[in-house]
């Protein structure tokens, strides 16, 4: 359950950010390198929801749930690092 929620929380939190601040969706004249850096930063910010869920799980003594959240956060971390180092436009 924690793994599923951990994978779904970052996109949901990003959707909520874009719903509250729709002007962030307008990216007009940004080149691909800047756009990729922006996307990686936004996804990293989306992981804050995972941090919150992780600590809530620890507070409620739901260890399996917290492990799932941590696993999904590490998965996102690997993806972010891979894009940072291997993506060349």
How does this structure look, described?
The protein contains four helices and no strands. The chain starts with a helix and ends with a helix. Helix 1 packs across helix 2, helix 1 (about 1-20) packs across helix 3 (about 50-60) and helix 2 (about 30-45) runs antiparallel to helix 4 (about 65-85). It has one domain (about 1-20, about 35-85). The chain is flat and about 45 Å long. With about 90 residues, the chain is an all-alpha fold.
From the alpha-carbon coordinates, what is the Rg to the nearest angstrom?
Answer: 15 Å
Spatial separation of the terminal alpha carbons: 36 Å
Oligomer: single chain
Helix/strand/pairing category: mainly alpha
Shape by Cα distribution: flat
The helix tally amounts to 4
Low-confidence stretches: none
Attribute tags:
flat; 89 residues; mainly alpha
Q: What order do the helices and strands come in, and which of them pair?
A:
Layout: H1 2-20, H2 32-46, H3 48-59, H4 63-86
Helix pairs in contact: 1-2, 1-3, 1-4, 2-4, 3-4
Task: Give a short overview.
The protein is mainly α. It has four helices and no strands. Helix 1 packs across helix 2.
């Amino acid at each position: 359950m924690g793994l599923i929620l951990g994978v779904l929380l970052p996109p949901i939190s990003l959707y909520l950010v874009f719903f509250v601040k729709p002007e962030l969706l307008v990216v007009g004249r940004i080149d691909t390198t800047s756009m990729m850096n922006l996307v990686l930063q936004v996804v990293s910010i989306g992981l804050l929801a995972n941090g919150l869920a992780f600590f809530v799980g620890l507070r409620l003594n739901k260890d399996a749930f917290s492990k799932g959240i941590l696993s999904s956060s590490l998965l996102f971390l690997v993806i972010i690092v891979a894009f940072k180092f291997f993506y060349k436009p």
